[in-house]
Amino acid sequence: MEGTKPVNKKLAAALSGGAVLVLALSGCGGSDDGNKELDAWAKQVCDSLPAQDAKVDAANAAIKQAATDNNAPENVQKTDSQAFQDMSDAYAVLAQAVQKAGTPPGVDGGAKKQKDAVTALNTLSTSYADLKKQVDALDTKDQGKFADGLADIATQLGTLSKTGNTALKNLEQGDVKDAMAKQDSCKKVAASASARATRS
């Protein structure tokens, strides 16, 4: 009977999304004075990012580590369950941060972009919580069923990474993107994401 190793690798590969709020920021750095109010808004959002980015990165790393050869299904289940819980918590905190920051000032359609970003982050949080429930419900005694269950979760995980990034890029455009790119905390997360991309 085949083990779960190939499926675990698929699960790990699906995690290439990384932290969601940084993709549009990479390689940017506004040098103008910009909008002081918008800069303050960006700082509020950016300052919440590093801790949650680290939490998501650690969860990604844990799942990849669990995908090592000959890891017992029980260990994979426990690790993946905690990782999905951590991801769910991280996106919930980010949603609260964007909600608390309010509408980005001086931005066309800012209220809608903010609302959509909060909705996207909350949806991600709920989706990862659902994946945790699915992992918890897998039968670790039956390798075949466990492998099938992991394969399904890996497929959902790949979709989640893409939808999260797409929804949030709408918030990170124009002046908002420039304002966020100037914040040290956002630069730190962008550098971390760049390093991860190089590693993977």
Written description of the protein model:
With 200 residues, this protein is mostly helical. It is 73% helix and 0% strand. The chain is built from eight helices and no strands. The longest helix has 29 residues, at 73-101.
Short recap of the structure:
With 200 residues, the protein is mainly α. The chain has eight helices and no strands.
Structural class: mainly alpha
Number of strands: 0
The string of secondary-structure elements, in order, is HHHHHHHH
Basic shape: elongated
Determine the fraction of residues in helical runs and give it as a percent range: over 70%
What oligomeric assembly is this protein in?
single chain
Mean pLDDT rating: 81
Give the strand content. Answer: under 5%
User: What's the Cα radius of gyration?
Assistant: 18 Å
Counting DSSP H or I runs of 4 or more residues, the number of helices is: 8
The largest sheet is: none
| Ends apart, CA distance between termini | 30 Å
Low-confidence stretches: 17-24, 26-31
